[in-house]
Amino acid sequence: MLVKIDQIIKEIQSLSLKSRDDADSFRLRYLSKKGIIADLFTEFKAVPPDQKKLLGQRINELKKIAQEKIDSYLTSAGGPSSDKHEMDLTRPGEPKPPGSRHPVSIVRKEIIDIFARVGFVISEGPEIEDDWHVFSALNFPQDHPARDMQDTFFIRRNPDILLRTHTSSVQVRVMEKQQPPIRTISPGRVFRNEAISARAHCIFHQVEGLYIDENVSFADLRQVLFYFSREMFGMETRIRLRPSFFPFTEPSAELDISCSICGGKGCNVCKYTGWVEIMGCGMVDPNVLDNCNIDSDKYTGYAFGMGVERIAMLKYQINDLRLFFENDRRFLDQFSAAY
Ligand code: PHE
């Protein structure tokens, strides 16, 4: 009997089930009430008690092998249905929840669209930069404390190769290649060696803008920023410019908008001042134009730069910058309708 059982095991192992018909006849032949294995169990009742242990184990093993054979076919064929048409093409499909766009992408696109409507084109550049494009061409003197304003990541201890701390570097590249009129915005990722907190992160996104032509004035800058602020935060938005300092602009300013949360009455977002700062800006310093071979006697220009996360935080009332980088679906799913 042992020989017979081993033969059946070999037989089963050499079989391959290719269709539901194969599987059905396999079950009938081996596993049904009148099948080979059931017969073996009947035969087993009559064996002498001293052989029972060994034979019993072997028959159980055989049964297991047969069962596994049919199970593995059925799982690969998509379940034990006896239906010959394995797919019902008339049934509605299973709904797949669509992903949502990241709020940083939504806001970055919105900023780009607003400026594209008044003629700005997009320019992009490398994230790994050299000192010239991030600092020196932009009028940061060597060893000037202004370099500390932007805590820089250097690569392999080589002070000439670094991760860009702002996308102004892209604008240097544009000015080096192209003569005015230049009207461009550079969106992109920037890196600063800052401790991560609710208000700061070592990676964030910027959109910086640059306009150079003959007779570009501070009034033009103010007008384009007013236009942007109202498009972004609503027609009732007011703006104000506060004097500031950047090495690459003169004069320099910071742009505040009337608080879009309280409308200027005072709340904890604007710290009860009624105003929130949204970007830096100014008239391009003539030294920067000269560094990029643009005639600073003939041309003037303005520049501005903003953090995309900051704009998104104000627009959607998000109070912690870290949420943008954690990829928590409960946060991200709230923006699925926003685009
Ligand atoms: N590059 C500045 C920054 O990253 C922003 C800025 C751009 C300021 C253009 C003035 C003019 O902080």
What layout of secondary structure does this protein have?
Blueprint: H1 2-14, H2 20-31, H3 36-45, H4 49-76, H5 103-116, E1 121-122, E2 128-130, H6 131-134, E3 154-155, E4 158-163, H7 168-177, E5 182-191, E6 203-213, H8 218-233, E7 239-246, E8 249-258, E9 275-284, H9 286-291, E10 300-307, H10 308-316, H11 323-326, H12 329-332
Parallel strand pairs: 1-5
Antiparallel strand pairs: 2-4, 3-4, 5-6, 6-10, 7-8, 8-9, 9-10
Helix pairs in contact: 1-4, 2-4, 3-4, 5-10
Comma- or semicolon-separated keywords:
339 residues, alpha+beta, BirA Bifunctional Protein, domain 2, 7-stranded mixed β-sheet, 10 strands, 38% helix
What is the succession of H and E elements?
HHHHHEEHEEHEEHEEEHEHHH
Query: Helix proportion of residues, in percent?
Result: 25-40%
In one word, what is the shape? elongated
Main sheet strand line-up: 1-5-6-10-9-8-7
CATH fold assignment of the largest domain = BirA Bifunctional Protein, domain 2
- Count of extended strands: 10
Chain oligomer state: single chain
The first-level CATH class of the largest domain is given as Alpha Beta
**CATH architecture label name of the largest domain:** 2-Layer Sandwich
- Look at the structure and name the CATH superfamily of the largest domain: Bira Bifunctional Protein, Domain 2
